[in-house]
Specification:
0% strand, 3 helices, mainly alpha, 62% helix
C-alpha cells in the first residue's frame, strides 16, 4: 500500500465517525439519552486524537467532549450499570463555564 492509498484509507475511516457523531447529536436533541451522550463523548475523544484531524478541529473536539461529558453526567441517573462515566473534563482543560448562545 503506497502513502497516497494509506492516507485515503485513514481519511475514509474518519468520515463515518464524523457522520455518526453528527447523527447522534441530532438524535440526542430530539430524545436525550445517556447512552447516546456516552457514545458522542467516545466519538469526540476518537476524533480529538485522529491523525487526519487538523489542530483546530482537534481542539474543538476536546471542548465539545467536555460539554457532552457534562450532558452525560447530568443524565446518567438511569444509565446502564456496565457503562463507565467518561471523565467530566479532559486533563488540562478548564471548566467550560456558563453556557453562552452562539449563532453561526
Amino acid at each position: 500500500m503506497n502513502d497516497a492509498t494509506r492516507q485515503t484509507a485513514v481519511i475514509d475511516d474518519l468520515e463515518p465517525v464524523v457522520s455518526a457523531t453528527m447523527y447522534l447529536m441530532s438524535s440526542f436533541q430530539e430524545r436525550p439519552c445517556p447512552v447516546v451522550a456516552h457514545k458522542i463523548v467516545h466519538n469526540l475523544e476518537l476524533l480529538s486524537h485522529h491523525p487526519c484531524c487538523s489542530g483546530p478541529l482537534k481542539r474543538l473536539c476536546v471542548r465539545m467532549r467536555a460539554q457532552w461529558a457534562l450532558q452525560y453526567l447530568n443524565l446518567n441517573t438511569n444509565a446502564a450499570p456496565r457503562m463507565q462515566p467518561p471523565d467530566a473534563l479532559p486533563s488540562g482543560t478548564e471548566s467550560p463555564g456558563p453556557r453562552r448562545a452562539v449563532l453561526h
